[in-house]
Amino acid sequence: LISSATSSLRMETEILEKKLREAQMRLAEKDEDKEKEIQSLKRRVTELEFQLTMEKNSSDSLLGNMRKEIQHKAEELEKLTQERTQLIHNLSQVQEESCLLQETVRRECQERCELTAALSQAREQVLELKKLSGNFS
């Protein structure tokens, strides 16, 4: 009975040891698979970090270029605004000059009309005097 029980226990022990070895092998395989997956994920993270760094550098470069362009455009706008202000000022002066010249021309035309009228009147008076002096002779 003891021999049978011992034999039965040995068989059961062997079966359990075999199951333990199989479980340990499966566990080792799973550990190996997990390690491979971890390494793969680490590589992927490294790749993504590199890609992120490259995109960040590209964005920073683009942002810097845009800032320079905005600064350039702002300076150009300021220059054009100053030129516009100067042109408006010049236009105002030219308009004032034009008004002054128009007024001068108007006055000179009025004076010319007055002088023409005075000349016509003087001619008439000269003709009158000639007629009168012709009558006296």
UniProtKB/TrEMBL annotation:
Residues 13-97 form a coiled coil. Signal peptide: none annotated. InterPro entries: LEKR1. The keyword Plastid does not apply. The keyword Protease does not apply. Keywords: Coiled coil. PANTHER family: LEUCINE, GLUTAMATE AND LYSINE RICH 1 (PTHR34251:SF1), LEUCINE-, GLUTAMATE- AND LYSINE-RICH PROTEIN 1 (PTHR34251). This is LEKR1 protein. It comes from Indicator maculatus (spotted honeyguide).
